[in-house]
Amino acid sequence: MDLFETTREEYLSDARAIAEILVKKKETITVNDIRDILPPPRDVDPRVMGAIFKCKSWEKVGYISSNRASICHGRPIAVFKKKQ
After folding, report:
1. What is the CATH number of the domain that holds 24?
2. What confidence tier does 4 reach under pLDDT thresholds 50, 70, 90?
3. Pairing state of beta strands 58-65 and 76-82?
4. 16 CB contacts (<8 Å, ≥6 apart)?
5. pTM for this prediction
6. Separation of alpha carbons 82 and 4, rounded Å
7. For position 55, what pLDDT does the model report?
């Protein structure tokens, strides 16, 4: 269990760093933008992606259809921007 917690923490830290870089290039981002660059490792539950934007510096601004049609079947995913 300790390994899982450490691995998840490391992944979230790396994913959040990528989010900071991406949001400078484009105004809004989704978890799929991050997943395209840094997919979650096999030993990390992919639902951890939802925790990337769980902090006060991000704001949900809407939803778009997921571009991961084979897995998500186009379900809506949240779009985030950096709070001012």
Report:
1. 1.10.10
2. very low
3. antiparallel
4. 52, 55
5. 0.81
6. 28
7. 86
Residue 78 CB coordination number (10 Å):
16
Q: Which phi-psi region, left, alpha or beta, contains residue 2 (left: φ > 0; alpha: ψ -120 to 50)?
A: alpha
> Which token pair is 79?
């779009």
- For residue 83, the number of C-alpha atoms closer than 13 Å in the C-beta half-sphere is 8
How many domains are contained in the chain?
A: 1
Q: Residue 70's domain spans which residues? A: 2-82
Tell whether the model's pLDDT for residue 70 goes beyond 70: no
Structural tokens at position 84: 């001012």
**Residue 83 CB neighbours (<10 A):** 9
